[in-house]
Amino acid sequence: MQLRQEQLNQHLISNKLAPIYLVSGAEPLLIEESCDAIIKAAAAKDFSERNYLVADKSFNWQELLTTANNLSLFSTKTLIQLRIPNAKPGTTGSKTLQEYAKKLPTDKILLIVTDKLDAAAQKSKWFKALEKAGVFLPIWPIDRSRLPNWLALRLQQEGLKTDTNSLNLLADYVEGNLLAAKQEIEKLRLLYGETTLTTTQITQAISDNARFSIFDLADSALQSNKKKSLRILHSLQSEKTEPILIVWVLAKELRSLAKMAYTKQEQNSAIEQILQQYHVWPMRKPIIKHALQTHKYSTIMNLLKRCALLDRIIKGAAAGNIWNELEQLCLSL
Q1: What is the pLDDT of residues 159-197, one digit of tens each?
Q2: CA dist., res. 82 & res. 303, Å (int)
Q3: pLDDT at 5 over 60
């Protein structure tokens, strides 16, 4: 069974606890809070003993089965927390997880935490066995459009509130870093107590904790968001991100976009049909659709030529300031 994160608390309150919980994602704060909620609910059901296992390269998967089959000296029920860092249990791990799912111990709950599971992992036998036997909880990042509402709820939980403009300001500061958002809200609570915050108070209290990836830059550029694209690029520059990595990601996106634009041009296909044909993920469809509506095939090919020039600049084979050129590339895209 699959649950959304916002459904978890209601599930833990109203339902019998599942024998297995698989929590997966790339947002540390939301993963930690989800796991804490499961652990707290398990403790309330007398799962008072906890074992923590990490499936690193040296992990012996037999240890999981041994722990599952061990009888407690004090007849207590146990929560086993298993961390799979790379979300890839391997052949032995896959077989062990399937075996565990077939023979569920009645006095154990297995809480598995992994990095984000890709489409291939979600088609694997071990994943399907775990999802069938328990609960799969994928943790999605809070994107910019949803962030102000998320912040408003968090502020409310601390006895704070503010106006829409201030929420957007706070969102700009902490975008891409929910842990920083939590810390800043706690700081605001300590500084001002329960109150209605002004923009001035928020500006004085917080620092810029926005953290972006190269992929955020690509998405922002594809959506024609010039202001945000430059902000992300400057953030990457200040973090000393290698320009070659930025060029690689942008070129990769452009090559994929060029194939779709060529199909659209030659076959006169509808954009929705093209997105389906090239297996674009649902969450990225609005981004790619906008880019295909904005740029012709010939424009995309010219941008790819610009990427080739930037590659030569990085390697010293052509003259130019790489960060200035990256700015121009992002603005053109």
Answers
A1: 999 999 889 888 888 888 888 899 899 989 988 999 999
A2: 46
A3: yes
- Per-residue pLDDT tens digits for 276-289: 998 888 888 999 99
Q: Which amino acid is at 48?
A: S
Q: What is the mean pLDDT of residues 97-108?
A: 89
Closest to 90 in 3D by CA, of 135, 129, 133, 55: 55
Contacts of residue 136, defined as CB under 8 A and 6 or more positions apart, other chains included, come to: 1, 2, 3, 22, 24, 127, 130
Give the C-alpha separation, 250 to 222, whole Å: 9
Sheet strand arrangement including 78-84:
49-54, 78-84, 108-114, 20-25, 135-139
Q: How far apart are CA 193 and CA 31, in angstroms?
A: 28
Closest CA to 256 of 272, 224, 271, 278: 278
Strand partners, 83: 54, 113
pLDDT at 291 over 90: yes
User: Whole-structure pTM over 0.90, yes or no?
Assistant: no
Q: What percent of the chain has pLDDT over 90?
A: 48
pLDDT tens profile 201-234: 888 787 666 778 888 899 999 999 999 999 999 9
CA-to-CA distance for 288 and 286, rounded, in angstroms? 6
How many angstroms separate the CA atoms of 154 and 185, rounded?
A: 8
> Where are the alpha helices (H) located in 176-213, listed in sequence order?
178-192, 199-205
C-beta pairs of 98-106 under 8 Å, 24+ apart in sequence: 98/125, 98/126, 98/129, 99/65, 100/20, 100/64, 100/65, 100/68, 101/20, 101/129, 101/130, 101/132, 101/133, 101/134, 102/129, 104/19, 104/20, 104/133, 105/19, 105/68, 105/69
DSSP states of 111-164: EEEES---TTGGGSHHHHHHHHHSEEEEE----TTTHHHHHHHHHHHTT-B--H
